[in-house]
């Protein structure tokens, strides 16, 4: 069995169910044949407020830290994102936000091949 770690900022979650649906569809087809196992790391921007008065940003606060959808374990670590001005920094801030989780996944025995 091939163990795949899927790292993407485009993946559906229980709050944003259509976000990156094409990535989930492809991954489900890959896993369906039984030769591939996958864990998904799909970071979301950190936002402190859940109230809907904050518009689309409040969705980020409601995304669970982890969940399972159709048998695929998904982690949603948070990273700092500065709206409008932070696009050059986002990749670096994402790395900082997921580094600890990736180490934990390996420590817990998920030694991915790809």
Unreliable residue runs: none
Please state roughly what percent of the residues sit in beta strands, choosing from under 5%, 5-15%, 15-25%, 25-35%, 35-45% or over 45%: 15-25%
The helical percent reads: 25-40%
Distance linking N and C termini = 12 Å
- In total, how many beta strands? 6
Oligomer: single chain
Walk me through what this model shows:
- This protein has 114 residues and is α/β, with parallel strands linked by helices.
- The chain has one domain (2-107).
- 32% of the residues lie in helices and 21% in strands.
- The protein contains 3 helices and 6 strands, in the order βαββαβββα.
- The strands form 2 sheets. The chain has a 4-stranded mixed β-sheet with strand order 1-2-5-4, with helices on one face. Strands 3-6 form a two-stranded parallel ribbon.
- The longest helix has 18 residues, at 90-107.
- The radius of gyration is 15 Å and the shape is globular.
- The model has no long low-confidence stretch (mean pLDDT 92).
Fold blueprint:
Elements: E1 2-7, H1 21-32, E2 36-41, E3 44-45, H2 57-62, E4 66-69, E5 72-75, E6 78-79, H3 90-107
Parallel strand pairs: 1-2, 2-5, 3-6
Antiparallel strand pairs: 4-5
């Amino acid at each position: 069995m091939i163990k795949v770690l899927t790292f993407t900022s485009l993946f559906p979650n229980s709050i944003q169910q259509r976000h990156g649906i094409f990535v989930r569809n492809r991954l489900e087809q890959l896993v369906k044949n039984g030769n591939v196992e996958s864990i998904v790391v799909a970071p979301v921007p950190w936002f402190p407020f859940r109230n809907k008065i904050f518009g689309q940003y409040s969705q980020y606060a409601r995304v669970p830290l982890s969940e399972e959808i159709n048998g695929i374990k998904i982690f949603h670590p948070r990273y700092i994102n500065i709206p409008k001005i932070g696009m050059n920094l986002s990749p670096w801030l994402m790395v900082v936000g997921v580094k600890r989780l990736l180490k934990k996944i390996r420590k817990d025995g998920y030694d991915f091949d790809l």
